[in-house]
Amino acid sequence: MSEVIVITSGKGGVGKTTTTANLGMGLAMRGKNVVLVDTDTGLRNLDLLLGLENRIMYDLIDVTQGRVPYKKALVRHKKVENLFLLPTSQVKDKSAVNPEELVKLCEELRKEFDYILIDCPAGIEQGFQTAIAAADVAIVVTMPEISAVRDADKIIGELGRADKENIKLIVNRIRPQMVESGDMLDMDDINDILSIDCIGQVPDDKMVITSTNRGEPCITMDKSTAGQAYRNIVGRLLGEKVPFMTFPKEGFFSRLKHVFGM
Amino acid sequence: MSDEIVRIKGTKSGLQLLFAAGATYAAIEKEIRAKLRAGSGFFCRGTVMHAMEGSLSKDEMEKLKRLFHESGVIFSVTRSRIPGATEWPVERPRRKSARAQKRPAEAAVQAEAAVPAENAPAEPAAVQASSADDEAVQMVVVNKTLRGGQEVRTKSSVLVCGNVNPGAQIIAGGSIDIRGTCRGLVHAGAFGNQKAFVVADHLIPTQIRIADLIARSPDDPQQIEKTARPERASIKDGQIVIEPIER
Ligand SMILES: Nc1ncnc2c1ncn2[C@@H]1O[C@H](COP(=O)(O)OP(=O)(O)O)[C@@H](O)[C@H]1O
Ligand SMILES: [Mg+2]
């Protein structure tokens, strides 16, 4: 049974693309056939994070408009051979694909792949509606700050309106020191407001940026704390019970324990 | 009210206490005690009360401090009056809805019964405003959390089995009962019913409106209580007051 997962957030810059690249890479490294579909048309950068920019021949718009079969547009990852990218266009805009076209494409992709991950554009306009149309699961990415959490809340409401019931939360860029000093929302507050199943807490990690520049998601790096968090999330997506990771600061972790009943 | 001795003004950093010129300390204390009793709900929330340095003697300030502390209010003596003070916690909105109260037929015209599409209950074609005494007969039940950007607007009462999140709002002709945490905007008795109330398991809304009165949350989020206990907001003596309830 294949699964279509949309990675969305409302607010831009919270880590949707980073999350898509890492989870895709992680699932592929665990032996799954994975395709990543970039629907952030006009602002594509999933290819950059995977180091595949120079291999793009065709894009999503070419496929949905029937110029080429999807297989021609897929870009295979250099190292992980069961990971593919379906890139989008850098020059078209988000109205170039409509929900029906993406649903139809995903039906075809389901025949070949175990996981279809869709990187969603920011906002709640047409691009968002298109990106979520085919999804079985929605992963909402947020950051521990008020505006990001409010946008996530709005997105969860929109997902509900579109009858998407299976919604998971990832809180990205957690900085334990800032939470401790009360300068960031803590997990209590976030869970209290959003009240959806949290499947991951990703720390803020400089190696995310280093890895972006190298075109290799941080999940491949043993020493990256964000990479470890993403490996845990991949395990949870595969149905494993993975405990939430400890952060260097005691106080923060005891809070997490409190929230997740660990 | 020109014969008022003590006035409380709302500011960004808390409340400002002002005294009428020439008032005796005894009179001031008496009036503050009365105010604390009337507005206990609001004052309990760790509100900061500023008083101007020099407006009373040091000893008298000490006494006031103790008095406020008993009610959980943080008392602070500041050097100058905080500019831009507006009335708080209760202020009159621009629109006078007193008229609507007297003429229910007209109120009914204003009342739109728009509810989020996915849980739109079959609104009875005509909720007869004339038959509605003070109590709203109908009730809209929302069986989910109202998230940012969502709105429930109805002539009747509302029961929410879930939270009301920041950015969500409920505008009800009757009362509002939230079986969860209220962080959004709630307006009970929106068409003039002064007896309407708001109840929630945890009441920390951005704004509470009842009939034509408005109360807003403290500007400093640190002042908002974390511990949840059911509370009820209603109008008492022309003010919105919040008090704990059992349920
Ligand atoms: N956990 C993290 N630690 C440090 N930087 C991060 C982390 N997650 C994302 N970033 C950085 O934040 C920026 C935005 O991330 P991106 O995934 O492009 O967001 P989105 O796709 O939601 O717009 C990028 O520069 C990325 O490197
Ligand atoms: Mg992106």
Outline:
The complex is a heterodimer of chains A (262) and B (247). Chain A is α/β, with parallel strands linked by helices and 262 residues long.
Name the CATH class of the largest domain in chain B: Mainly Beta
CATH class of chain A: Alpha Beta
**Percent in strands of chain A:** 15-25%
State the shape of chain B.
Answer: elongated
Fraction of residues in H or I helices of chain A: 40-55%
- Measured by DSSP, the beta-strand proportion of chain B falls in 25-35%
Order of helices and strands of chain B: EEHHEHEEHHEEEEEEEEEEE
> Which fold name corresponds to the CATH topology of the largest domain in chain B?
Pectate Lyase C-like
String of helices and strands of chain A:
EHEHHHEEHEHEHEHHEHHH
- What is the CATH superfamily label of chain A? P-loop containing nucleotide triphosphate hydrolases
Biggest pleated-sheet summary of chain B: 6 strands, mixed
User: Total domains of chain B, how many?
Assistant: 2
Ions and ligands: adenosine-5'-diphosphate, magnesium ion
Strand order of the largest sheet of chain A: 3-4-2-5-1-6-7-8
CATH fold category name of chain A: Rossmann fold
Radius of gyration of chain A (CA) equals 18 Å
Counting DSSP E segments of at least 2 residues, the number of strands of chain B comes to: 16
Strand tally of chain A, please? 8
CATH architecture term of the largest domain in chain B: 3 Solenoid
Any low-confidence stretches of chain A, pLDDT <50, length ≥5? 250-262
Descriptive report:
The complex is a heterodimer of chains A (262) and B (247). Chain A is of the alpha/beta class. In chain A, 41% of the residues lie in helices and 16% in strands. Chain A has one domain (3-259): P-loop containing nucleotide triphosphate hydrolases (Rossmann fold, 3-Layer(aba) Sandwich), CATH 3.40.50. Chain A is built from twelve helices and eight strands. Chain A has an eight-stranded mixed β-sheet with strand order 3-4-2-5-1-6-7-8, sandwiched between helices. In chain A, helix 1 (16-29) crosses helix 11. With 247 residues, chain B is of the alpha/beta class. Helices cover 17% and strands 31% of the residues of chain B. Chain B has helices spanning 25-38, 40-43, 58-70, 98-102, 104-110, and strands at 6-11, 14-19, 48-52, 74-78, 86-87, 139-142, 151-154, 157-160, 169-172, 176-182, 185-188, 198-203, 207-210, 213-216, 231-236, 239-244. In chain B, helix 1 (25-38) runs parallel beside helix 3. Chain B starts with 5 loop residues before the first strand and ends with a strand. The model of chain B is unreliable at 82-136 (pLDDT under 50). The structure holds adenosine-5'-diphosphate and magnesium ion. Adenosine-5'-diphosphate is lined by residues 9, 12-18, 172-173, 202, 204-205, 208-209, 212, 226 of chain A.
